[in-house]
From TrEMBL:
Native source species: Thermosynechococcus sichuanensis E542
Coiled coil listed as a keyword: yes
A Pfam family reported for this protein in Swiss-Prot or TrEMBL: GrpE
Coiled-coil residues: 13-40
Keyword entries, A-Z: Chaperone, Coiled coil
GO BP field: protein folding
PANTHER family tied to this protein: GRPE PROTEIN, GRPE PROTEIN HOMOLOG, MITOCHONDRIAL
InterPro entries for the chain: GrpE, GrpE_head
Protein name, UniProt field: Nucleotide exchange factor GrpE
Keyword Chaperone: yes
SUPFAM superfamilies: Head domain of nucleotide exchange factor GrpE
Similarity comment text for this entry: Belongs to the GrpE family.
Amino acid sequence: MESKKFLISEEQKKKLLASISQLMRENTQLSQNIRQINSSYNSKLGEFLLELLEIYDSLESLSEYLSANPDPPAGFLQRLPRNLTSIKNRFLAVLESQGVSECKLEEYQFNPNFCRAIDVIHDKSYPDNKVVKVLKKGYLVKDLVLRPYEVIVNKLNK
C-alpha cells in the first residue's frame, strides 16, 4: 500500500501546532472542570446521605427499643406519635433542601399532569373529575413530577 505525503507550508505547520496546543490547553481545563464538578457533587451527595443516615438512626433506635420492650410504658406510647412526626418532618426538610416539594392539587380536581388514577368511582354526590381520595401524595423536584399523586377519582360518565 502506498503512503501519500502531504506537503504543507511552514506557516500552515505553525497554525496547526498552535491549534493543537490550544486544544490541549482546553482539554486540560475541561478535565479540571470535570474534576471540580465531580468533587462538588460528591461532597453534596455525602452531606445529603449523612442527613438521611441521621433519620435512619432515629428509626433504628426506635425499632430496637420496641423490639427490646414489646410492652412499652404508657408514657412512651403517648410520646410515640410526636416522635414519629418529628422524624417525618426531619425527612421532609431533607427532601425540601434538595428541591423536592409536594404537588398542589387545585381544589382536588383530577389533573393528569400531577395525578395517576388508581381507581374510578361513579357517584352522583361528587362532581365529575373530583379527587375523592388521595392514596399517595405527589411530589415535584423543581418543575419535574417526581411522583404523581395516586388518587381515586369520580367520573359521572361510565
